[in-house]
Every structure is written in structure tokens, then in C-alpha cells.
Amino acid sequence: MPQTTCSPSAKAGTKALLSLLIKTWGGSSSGISRGCGVGGRSEHKEGRALDWHMSVKKASQRKRVASAMKWITANNGEVALRLGIMYMIWNQHIWSTYYPELGWRKMADRGGTTANHKDHVHISLSWDGAYKQTSWWTGTPIVEPLNSRCGASGVRACLPTIPRTSKSWPYQSTKVPASFTPAAWTLPGVGGSPQVGRLQRAVPGKWVPAGATLTYQWTSNGRAIPGATADNYLLPPEQVGREVEVRVTATVGSRVETRASNNIADVYPGRMAAAGPRIVGVLAPGKILRINLGTWKPAPTRLTFAWLRDGKKIKGATGSTFTVRAKDKGHKISVRVSGYRLGYYTATATSARARISSAFGTVGTATISGSPTIGSELVGSTGSWNPAPTAFTYQWYADGVAIAGATKARFTVTSAQAGRTLVFTAVGRRSGYASTDVRSAGFGPIS
Ligand SMILES: [Zn+2]
After folding, report:
1. Tens digits of per-residue pLDDT, 289-300?
2. Rounded CA gap, 110 and 160, in Å?
3. Does the pTM exceed 0.70?
4. CA 174 to ligand 1 center in whole angstroms
5. DSSP state, residue 328
6. Do 17 and 83 meet the contact criterion of CB atoms below 8 Å apart?
7. Which of 40, 70, 220, 420 has the fewest CB atoms within 10 Å distance of its CB?
């Protein structure tokens, strides 16, 4: 709940957290309260934000803040939740309990050292945190806010709220609207992290009277998004950098009331998950290496490649294949794959490093002998190699699919292979030589 009212006296929970920070990590306070007439919206004006005076320019202070932040944000912000922290700003970055999985996000440059929070840490608390009613202090978890934005009394009937620009007491009205007019008892909100590819859910808030018909309209930078009228919205790439919010309209009879959610912060690019590119091919000079891309989610629309030798980029080696050079022998080759997609951060994944050794002088030819009928025993041969491999591994395939358990040179055909064409493959291995696979011609179909 952002600041909407004004009662600048420092609240007990805010004071307690500030002194906890100073007692544990040092530093000093640069304030809690702020006059109601000063500047824009701020929880300082409600006594539920603190400024912890620490400087990014001093290594020891930076280190102590890092230690405090680590404690607060660990385990998806467990301590932050228990303290009732809404968000923290430090060194031009923001962290909030709403999106703990997004971590610290860079903020726009606001100008000076203080405006960019390089000489203090700002922490804003929920009302319950400010009133020291959260489980860190009480030991008892709270599942519903105890305090509305109307203050400590626990009285929630405070709608509508007079905007904070009102300087005269009372800062809030405690009038309950006439029962036939729908009114937001608690403001609508949006659930979900504001990141491309993530589902946002409209949280309609609580409306009085109950039973109002609710409809939704999602907006981007204040404009209605055509067709986005469900109670959820999957953030598409074109919303990166925009502010998306939802407007909730409540209707009772002929009375209609619309409330906008609090803005989602700028929508962040999505993250692609990239796992496991692998190098495929014979790891010896003169051979062509290819890439098995592994799994990417969502699929990139463009890929770039960089082949590496002992972890360093090989000049000009940016294709999807790489021909091993004589001078690569004894070195380790890997490939770095970068994936691009509109609205997503670039994702990069690197294969394991593979040592280049010698190629076998002669590689045998794989063949199958026997009868292509159910029940017959087939024998796979690997031909003659020079030097001879010290070990082989085998795999039989039916119509291109590996047959489970068929990993010996001999294979007895079963009815499962009826009508299918078999292939026998072998990988020859010998220390100092690049493992090399051979495959037979198709055998069958089996009858
Ligand atoms: Zn502040």
C-alpha cells in the first residue's frame, strides 16, 4: 500500500527496524519523518519509511549494507516479509517483496547522490510492519492486513480517502459510502512479477456492497490494451519498459465505479531458460564438429555461436560447425551459444569443454549379419580399425529409435520390430584417440 495519507510521526516498527540495523551494522539514521507538504508520494510522510545513512563510496559501509541486505532478502525475502518490508532502495537499485524473484533491479538515474540512494538505504514498510505487528516482532504470522491505510485504530471503514493534498485534520474521512454505490474497500492490485512471459492476475480488491459485478480492462502506459479484458494478462514482449495496470469496474444496478490498480513497475524483459548445448562429432583434427543445442525455453528466434579453445574465443569461428585444426590437438574445445528473442534478455549457454585428440587411422565399417526375421539372432560387426579400439559401446535402433536394452553386439529380433528397419551403431574408444561412432546401413524391414 503506497503512501496515501499523512501522519508523519515515526511509527514503532519503523523505529525498531532502524535501531536494529544501526545496532547490528552501524551507520546512523538520516530520518524517518517527512513533512506532509514536501515533495511527492513517500511513506516517510506516514512514518513508515526509514533512511539508513550508509555510503556506497565507503567500502566498509558497502560491505555492511551487503550483509544486512543478504539477511533481509535471503530465501525469497523471508525476513523482509516477517518485518513487513515493502521495498528497499540502495545504490540506484530497488528490491521489493512483491517480486523477490526479480532480485535487485536498476533504477533510472534521478540525478544526485541522495536522489540515487548512494548515501543512504531507504526502506519502506507496510502499515503492519510500521506498527510493529508483524511476526518478526510478535512471533505470530498475520494472513490479512491488520491495518488498513486508515491507521492504527483497526477501523477499516474509511472510504473514500481524501487525497493527501488535504492538509487539515482529519486526513481521512471515515464516511462509509451509501450502500448502493460500489466502492473499493481495498484497492485493486495486480499479482505476478512484471516480466515478459509471466501471467499477471487482477486482484479486484474488496468492494462494498458485496455482489457488485466486476469487469476488467488492462492498460499499457494508461491506454486500454485491445482485447485484454480478462482477470489475467500474459505479458507479451511489446510491453517491455511500459507500465501495465488493470482497471476494475464494479457495477451495481446503474451505478458504476472504476478503480485502477497501483502501477506495475516498468515491465522487465523475460528470461529464456537455456540448458545443455553439446558438441557432436569426432574430436580430432580434420573432423567437423556440430552442435546439439539442448533445450531453450521459449525458443530463441536467432542464435549466434562462438567456438572456444581452452575457454578463449577462436577468431572467426562463429558458424554452427567447426572444422578441427591440427593445432587444436591437446587443447579443449567448447562452444558458446547465445539466443535472442524480442522482449527477452539474451541467454547464453556454453557446452562442456572437449579435449581434441588423434583420429583413428582406419575406422571400420559397421555391418549386420543374420536373417531379417522375428526370432533370429543378428550379429553386429565393427570391421577392422587401426589402431584397434580397446572398448566399444553398442546400440541398436528400430526406425531411428534406440531399442531399450539393445546394447550388445548381438541382438535377437522380437515382434516389436516387425515391419521396421534396424540399424546397428558402435562407438570405438581408445586412450589418446577421439571416440568415433560408426553405423550400419539399414537392415530389413523385419518380417
Ligand atoms: Zn527515504
Report:
1. 999 999 999 999
2. 33
3. no
4. 29
5. G
6. yes
7. 40
